[in-house]
């Protein structure tokens, strides 16, 4: 099993920001994707996938009609199956560090995504990402894996966790 460092925590604690800072400060050869909020007039309307090589697609939105729903958001699993999964496999092949932001309820609707996460974690590459704090069978099994470091991020431990990640990336 490859090395992995996953952040968990409440929304708004800065998980994605810490990962972005770690990539920038370490200057790692990273690939993969981030999820990013879509806001209009300060109100969150959805989420997009943004790959490290510049592709963007809407993953979930209040206007998407889908059988896959998380709260008020319809989830477009085909975006995850294409853009998200492709970004993970490209990173496994081409990069030293695989970014998976995030392993969450929306993403876990996709069996292709689950397989890509398992392949990334089984690869010799380092995986840096985020994982849901909420119970989910796959997320629970990942969190219980002794070779995977899971850190719960809070507003009070951001500097410590960032320093730990930078040390881990060396």
What is the topology?
Elements: E1 4-8, H1 15-26, E2 30-40, E3 43-51, E4 56-61, E5 69-70, E6 73-75, H2 77-94, E7 97-103, H3 111-122, E8 126-131, H4 137-144, E9 148-152, H5 158-169
Parallel strand pairs: 1-8, 1-9, 2-7, 7-8
Antiparallel strand pairs: 2-3, 3-4, 4-6, 5-6
Helix pairs in contact: 1-5, 2-3
What does this structure look like?
Helices cover 36% and strands 32% of the residues. The protein is globular, with a radius of gyration of 15 Å. The mean pLDDT is 94. The chain has helices at residues 15-26, 77-94, 111-122, 137-144, 158-169; strands at residues 4-8, 30-40, 43-51, 56-61, 69-70, 73-75, 97-103, 126-131, 148-152. The protein is an alpha/beta fold. The protein has one domain (4-169): Rossmann fold, CATH 3.40.50. It has a nine-stranded mixed sheet with strand order 5-6-4-3-2-7-8-1-9, with helices on both faces. Strand 2 and strand 3 form a beta hairpin. Helix 1 (15-26) packs across helix 5 and helix 2 (77-94) packs parallel to helix 3.
């Amino acid at each position: 099993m490859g090395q992995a460092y996953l952040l968990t925590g409440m929304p708004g604690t800065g998980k994605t920001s810490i990962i972005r800072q770690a990539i920038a400060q370490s200057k790692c050869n990273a690939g993969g994707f981030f999820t990013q909020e879509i806001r209009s007039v300060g109100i969150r309307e959805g989420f997009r996938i943004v790959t490290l090589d510049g592709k963007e697609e809407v993953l979930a939105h209040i206007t998407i009609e889908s059988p896959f729903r998380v709260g008020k958001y319809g989830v477009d699993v085909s975006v995850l199956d294409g853009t998200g999964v492709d970004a993970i496999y490209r990173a496994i092949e081409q990069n030293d560090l695989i970014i998976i932001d995030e392993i969450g309820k929306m993403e876990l609707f996709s069996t292709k995504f689950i397989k890509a996460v398992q392949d990334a974690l089984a690869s010799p590459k380092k995986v840096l990402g985020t994982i849901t704090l909420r119970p989910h069978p796959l997320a629970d099994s990942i969190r219980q894996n002794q070779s995977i470091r899971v850190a719960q991020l809070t507003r009070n431990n951001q500097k410590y966790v960032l320093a730990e990640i930078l040390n881990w990336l060396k």
